Amino acid sequence: MKKLFIAMLLLPMMVMAQTFEKGILTMSTITVKQGHRVQFEDGVKKWKACMLENGSKENWDIWSRVQGEGTVYGLTGMMANWAEMDKEDEAGKSCASIVTNFIMPHIEKTSRAMATTVPDWSKKTMAADTKLVWASYFRVKNGMLFSEVVKDVSATLASKEGNARGQWYRLMGGSEHEADYMVVDSYNGYAALDVEIPGAFEVYESVHGKKKTEVQREKWRNAVDVGWSYIWEHKPELSN
Question: What structural domains does the chain harbor?
């Protein structure tokens, strides 16, 4: 996966597995120049075709961010372990000129991040027909307290509903302004967002009562510095 990101972003993303297991998520956020969306996507299609023609075994997903400023895409992929960073990518080398000539001219800026999965907090299975993800990001001021609350609430959701909600990731490194954790909820279309479900603390209160729920809510407030979220729409024609 390392060579994929070199080919895609460093010349001058999330495989939807059926079971959510231990691994490393690689993510790049790509801001496209105003008015260059079509040219950027055409360039990525050329690059994808070249990668496949050259026998690439890489898997990646590309997403379009629904809200927020500018035209933003996300490129994600999964690695089982760090050793995958050492693998050579001959297909990526062969297609490097396409990145240089047909993709990079349409990019305003990029940022990169990596995160480890947290299966113990997460929904065990991932939908194969995902068309949207709702990603919520948290910057925390007390990681131990944050872990305690998420672990307890996730376990309660699993006992009540048969499974936890969403897939959790712990981000590795980055600046002090970036998220420390991320949770992703998957949907098979926009209509699924209209389905109303009780909030996590609402379910927690139905199991443990109001008093204990208020204790956990207060811990949550003391643990989280700030949180935000985006919807990302999957782009299957750009993904592999």
Answer: 2-234 (3.30.70.100)
Alpha-carbon Rg for the chain in angstroms: 19
The amino acid sitting at 137 is Y
β-sheet bridge partners, residue 240: none
20 HSE (CA, 13 A, CB side): 25
Give mean pLDDT, residues 5-19. 45
Q: How many CA atoms lie within 13 A of 200 on its CB side?
A: 19
Judging by DSSP bridges, how do beta strands 167-172 and 181-187 pair with one another?
A: antiparallel
pLDDT at 16 over 90: no
104 half-sphere exposure, CB direction, 13 A CA radius: 15
pTM score: 0.89
Nearest to 40 by CA among 108, 131, 111: 108
pLDDT tens, 198-228?
999 999 999 999 999 999 999 999 999 999 9
Please say whether the beta carbons of 72 and 28 come within 8 A.
Answer: no
Q: How far apart are the first and last CA of the chain?
A: 13
